[in-house]
Predict the structure of Signal recognition particle subunit SRP68.
Amino acid sequence: LKMAAEQQNEMKIPQMEENKENSIDGSLGLEILQIIKDSQQQHGLRHGDYQRYRGYCSRRLRRLRKTLGFKMGNRHKFTGKKVTVELLSDNRHLLLVLMEAERAWSYAMQLKQEANTEPRKRFHLLARLRKAAKHGEQLEKLCESHRVDAKTKLEAQAYTAYLNGMVQFELQEWKSAMEAFNKCKTIYEKLASAFTEEQAVLYHQRVEEISPNIRYCAYNIGDQNAINDLMQMRLSAGGGGGMMAEKLEALITQTRAKQAAVMSEVEWRGRTVPVKIDKARIFLLGLADNEAAIIQADNEETKERLYESLLAECRDTIQAVREELRTDVKQRERAAEGADSGKVSNLQYLHSYLTYIKLWTVVRRNESMAHALQAKLKEPQTDENKRGPRPQDLIRLYDIILQSLAELSSLQGLEEDHTFQKEVALKTLVYKAYRCFYIAQSYVLVKKWSEALVLYERVLKYTREVQSKAKSFNNSLKDLPDVQELIAEVSAEKYSLQAAPLSDRLDNFRLDPTLLSKQPNLVQFPPDFQPIPCKPLFFDLALNHVAFPPLDDKVEQKGKGGITGYFRGFFGFGS
């Protein structure tokens, strides 16, 4: 059913396009970029399914040939036939060549995905890309006819330049590829400036897609400044997209690998350790760039994606160091000797440093997510049917933060570092205060005023401890939430909470003398104890006072009656 509905839609789309492509002056026209973008988005490329899009191109080609009467022989024999300028009487002839190019291009992109595991398919990939470029050149040649309008000619030139650029890009002919991409970019920019803003949006999007390819070619030619532009492109949502995104990541890793050759050691908390593992060198070298990229992120989605990328890279690096620890027997012996002397080995200390980076990144990521949820929690709920954020969601985030801080305090090599342990303890108090605050908020939602008030008092206790201990650690609080704002918020919540019991008797006036004193008491806290029914306990004591009746007459008397009693019992007289 889904395939049938999709084919019906395919039948309608070409008719709509054919109607809108005929120019007013009678010349032939074709919205090349608009057609391929709509087709790609509706038939698989939104999810990167190139095989589905290739099947769509094949079906559309068959329908076009049937409609135009453009037969390629019969069922018994194939006879090749090309669209020529003389045959060009309908814009569907141009569409036919365009679909042939798109089919070859989509097959090449499908093979590119499969070539990651089957390298031999790369040869087939290059053949299909060359085939697509050949069809593009044929389309450009057909558009040179005087029957075709100027806009279609320019779009055909840009499309052909793009396909030629893709071929040269895969062949790593960077200079030729950059020239082709620049030609394509220039044509689309000219077209965008010649039309209204609504019509120019599609051309601008195409220019943004081509820009990473141009900068990548420039870098490979020798422009060292291009790497900075490529890293900035990675920050944008989708940064280059699909295959280009993978090439950007590979390029950045390759650049860091070259720089890591001169990196031999790292210093952390007053101790310098050598870094001999290449993966660890590359990660530590790019750590500052990754952190700067997170700070410069424009939105929470991009920031979350960068955090996940950093954590994945950090986990891989930790795994590489852990494997080195397992395989190096001599290192284990030195670690045992170091443990006796109170100092861990260099490799173990490096492992602790990388683990610290991972755990602290988890803390920062969850704090960023909590900050976004706090902002949403304060916004008024417009749709009642839609589930909004709740205090319980924040409690879960702060639980993960506290768990990470607990693991930080137990890192090997830092047990005797009292300054580090005090810093972790101070950060733990801050996040405990926030966690306790949102637990109180969850109790407020279910109108448990007493429990919430007790938790608010505990929040103030944590914040007072933080303020008293933070005097000697001025730099430790720069990355933490401001507890002063939390104190102000808790004070406001306490006042509203203390007034909450008054809502039960708003209709009844009652003058309480204690309210007129200098220290009015709105609510009795803590509340008085109230008697409640207890579960009764049962003990079986009656058995000790029960007098059982004698059973002597029921017990059989042995040794009496002799042979007479035997016969009497045999015939039933004695019963």
Notes: Residues 346-378 form the longest helix (33 residues). The two ends are 91 Å apart (CA to CA). Residues 1-5, 12-21, 237-242 have pLDDT under 50 and may be disordered. Residues 150 and 480 are 61 Å apart (CA to CA).
